[in-house]
Structure formats: structure tokens, C-alpha cells
């Protein structure tokens, strides 16, 4: 096997693995949902306290 054939086969193998498993939009939406849930929990638990 020549060097050019090895290089070509390695570049083809690298191109095939380029597909992403998880869509970045779903990761962002889940992160926003978690952060908003934590914000609402903070407001709900801290809303009854008086300021000193």
C-alpha cells in the first residue's frame, strides 16, 4: 500500500465520523430549561422572606 493510498483512506475515515450524535440545539434547549427551572425555584422559595 502506498503512502497516497494510506492518506486517502485515513481522510475518508475521518470524514465519515464527522456526523454529530446529539443535535446542539437540543443541548441548548435542555440547558435553558434547567436554568429557568432553577430560577423559578429560587423565586418561589425566596419570595416569602422579608428584607432586613
From TrEMBL:
Name under which the protein is recorded: Uncharacterized protein
Keywords: Membrane, Transmembrane, Transmembrane helix
Residue stretches spanning the membrane: 25-45
Native source species: Nocardioides psychrotolerans
Domain of life: Bacteria
